[in-house]
Amino acid sequence: MAGASVLVLGLASGQAFAAEAPLAATADAAGAATPTEEKADFGTRVEELVVTGASGAVTNAPVKASLEATQPQSIIDRQAIDQFIPATADYTQIVNLSPSVSGTSVNGPGLGESKTTLRGFQDGQYNVTYDGIPWGDANGPTHHSTSFFPSSTIGAVVVDRGPGGASQLGAASFGGSINLFSPEVADVFGGSQSVTAGSWNTWMSVTKINTGEIAALNGARALFNFQELKTDGALTNSGATAYNQLVRAVVPLVDSWKLTLFGTWNYTKVYTNDSSGATLAQVALYGKNFGLSTDPTTPTYYKYNVVNKHTYFNYAKLTGDITPSLKLENTLYSYYYKNDTESALDPTLSVADIAAKKGLQITYTPGGQPTVNGHVPGYTKLNVYKIYGDIVHLDQELSFGTIKAGLWWEQADTGPRARYDYDATLGHTDAGWTVDYRQKVLPGVPQYLEYLQYSGWNQYQPFVDFQWRVTPALTVTPGVKYVTDKLSVDSDVNQKTRAPFHGSKTFTKTLYFLTANYKLQDNLAVYAQYATGFLLPDISAMQVVNPNLDDLHPQESTNYQVGAVYHGGKFTFDADVYQIDFTNKIQTVTVGSETVNFNLGGATYKGVEGAVTYALTDQVFVFANGSVNSAKALGANTTIAGVPVTIVGGKQIANAPKSTAALGVLYHDDAWSVSLADKYTGEQWGAEGEPAAYRIAGYHSADLSVVYRFDRYRLEAAVYNIFDDQPVTAIKPGKTVPYDQYYFQPERNFQVSVKASF
User: Fold this and answer.
1) CB atoms within 10 A of CB 166
2) What is the SS3 assignment for 651-713?
3) pLDDT, tens only, 167-213
4) What is the pLDDT of residues 519-528, one digit of tens each?
5) Residue 314 forms beta bridges with which residues?
6) What's the CA dihedral at 82, 85, 90, 95 to 10 degrees?
7) Rounded to 5°, angle at Cα 546 from 544 and 550
């Protein structure tokens, strides 16, 4: 390849990352990877190689794309994560480096849950995978960013802005995929200890230990990673504590056969209301960083608002050659989530407001408690689910291509999902379970019980891609996947209605894919993609009175994309254009006192994206990426909560930025790495129809990071949001305008880290 000699080697979403020259791998002793580390793995690994060579632009680009790409993508390796991302971050801050991606953590990076928008698609409309395994909630494929995989458990990320091929797995196949990869396991013994301190009294410790190859266990090797974090949070009285333990072991068996065992366990506790955000009145009184208070007479008292979460994520993966040309990979997995929440009823209202609005008095019996208007009503919420499944891949090599076939099966069991009213002021006493702030009381249903629900899904997806090597320069990959999903709800007290509901529906769909990659030169490739997508409705579609399952339809899409990737000695870029036609788009709105789902009809997503890095010298690199994104409703007439509503077409969909941009410079030598980067998120609206009151102006955040390495040590100091901008980043419409909730970018903050390797 002219003028270029290195790139990250590995696979993501079935796409190979080319190695254009012999590699010289370098990494710190805690997680050094080698070219023999789990190659290929059917698209479920990215080898964490920090390589050296002439192509500094490719090596040092914060985001890059593969010459083998068949859809727009951003590869973010561990080198970029360490340089540009706060040590405390979760994956949502990592992927924010990519074009068309936006989102802000309002309590600080990794210090509270945050959501990512991808091309205007909201969380739950795209897949998130970890080592090739799709994961998400069981009541809909949304994600809790701090509940499973903190930054230290992520070795690399690939953002696929498209459905991929038939072998790209997940319940939301049309919005794209955020693919996370676990850290690599080194061949030699080593480890590291790092400590991070930062704003808002934030402290974090990460301990890594690599066993190296253990001769007594046939060369098996393992990585242990332990993270502990504690913070007061960017928002007032919104402290958090988090612990994560991870182990990943690679066990050679016989010949080419190998077993990979993985487990991670996570605990988080954070003080936050179940419906967070600050009203403009609260902002005027307490400032943009208002979260919770220390006043026990108000719903915002921090001890009334606490969330405890326990999770685990485990898998066992067997790989090997059945014949010299037939390869097998089988991954058996399971993950678990438990959310135990205590929350005040409504942090935007005073107790007097609640009583007046509901037209009731809050009474406490038994125990002789008198009628009281001054107590704070609250509730406890429990959400427990376990998901388990199996993924089988078979690759058959032929002289003119590769047949990639397989099957994904998954079972989700949720329950109980429950919510109980109680008196937050009195706490958990007998009297505390008798608060009733509903206008509808049903015979046989305890007044304090809002819902008690069990639900789940059972799905299987057989798939096949044929990677046809038409010529040495042209690869065409047609694919097909058959989706079968059975969604069920078993509830004596259903959410929102408090009436019994027991029902299920099975959805089926055949999805088609066609991609092509053509090498115009060794260092220049173009690609095109056609794909259909599918998103199963979540259980909220069954949380209405007398749900009509016959009218319940999945969301579907048709995707068209073309793009190009170039790798030069001093210059690398990728660019693409896309259009996505979206039907049966489900939107959630609040009308009066009811939150309902309705069919928006359809929408069209289209745009232009690109990324470029240029080496000014052997040590100085400038980079930029950006996008122009249109996500507009087609218009529809519908009925919401019994009220006829017209959805005006041609308006940008809520919470979909119209553009993104990033610009920065990086200096890198053997000892120092200094980066300055700015991310811009364009204009968007917090409600459908572009209402002026919900317009959110474009905003940006500039970050500076300085890293110094010597001997076995690494020192880092970083300042985030260096211009101390605190614009509105999101608006959640309330029941009436005074109760709209606003979210702001965190104030200027810093982190310093010290890392010692052995």
Assistant:
1) 27
2) CECCCCCCEEEEEEEEEECCCEEEEEEEEEECCEECCCCCCHHHEECCEEEEEEEEEEEECCE
3) 999 988 778 999 999 999 999 999 999 999 999 999 999 999 999 99
4) 999 999 999 9
5) 263, 334
6) -110
7) 100
